[in-house]
Amino acid sequence: MDISKLTQEEITRLGDPSDPRGEAGIAMLTRMNDSHSLLTDRALSLVSFKGSETVLDIGCGGGAALYKMSRMLPKGKLFGIDHSDTAVGLATKNNASDTDSGKMKIQRAEVASMPFEDGMFDVILTVESFYFWKEPQSELKEVYRVLKSGGTLVIALDEYGREGLAEETKQNAREYDLFLPTKEQLTKLLRGAGFEKTALHTYPGSGMICAEAKK
User: Fold this and answer.
1) 75 neighbors 102 (Cβ within 8 angstroms)
2) CA 22 distance to own-chain centroid
3) Residue 84: domain span
4) pTM of the predicted structure, to 2 decimals
5) What would the pLDDT profile of 125-163 be if each residue is shown by its tens digit?
6) Could you report the per-residue pLDDT of 72-81, keeping only the tens digit for each?
7) 11 located within any domain
8) Gap between the Cα atoms of 49 and 69, Å rounded
C-alpha cells in the first residue's frame, strides 16, 4: 500500500485513532505529533517544572509530548503508556536516545490498571486521548492513585462536547465511540476522582481546553 496516495481521511480510517496500527497508524500518529503541538505546549505551560520531576504521559501516541518534556527535564524521569503497540514502537523510536539511556520508559499499558506504584508521579499529562477512555471516572481514580500528593494532572483536548458541532464531527464520534465531555462533566469527573482543586483553561476561537487538577 502506498500511504502517500491516500487522503488524510483514508489514513485515519485505516490507522484507527482508537487503536493505531500498521503503516497508516504510523502516518496518522506522525501527523498528530504535529497537529497536537500547540495544544501540548499550552498544556505544558500550566506546569512549573523544576527540571527533576517524574512524569507520565497517558496515551503517548507518537511520543511528541514526551520529547518536549524531556527537553524541560534535564534531571527528570519520564514514562509513557499507550494501549497501541504501534504507538509504543513509534514513540520509542522518536525518543531513542532517552529510552536507550534509561531516562525514559515507554510501554504498553491500560489507564484502567497502570503498572505503577502509588504516588509515583509529580506530573501526569494526557493530550487528545481522554476521548478513548472507556470508564473515565474509575480511570481518573487510577490516575489519582499514581499521582503524588501535591502533584498536577493536565488533560488537554478539543472541546467537542458542546452544541453546534458539525455533523461530520458527530459521525466521527459515533464511529470511534468517543467520549466527548462538556466542561461541566469534566469538572464533575475530576471531583469524583478525588481532585478538589481543579481549573479549566480555554482558548477563545481555538476550541482547545486544558483541565488542570491538583492532588
Assistant:
1) no
2) 20
3) 36-214
4) 0.92
5) 999 999 999 999 999 999 999 999 999 999 999 876 555
6) 999 999 999 9
7) no
8) 9
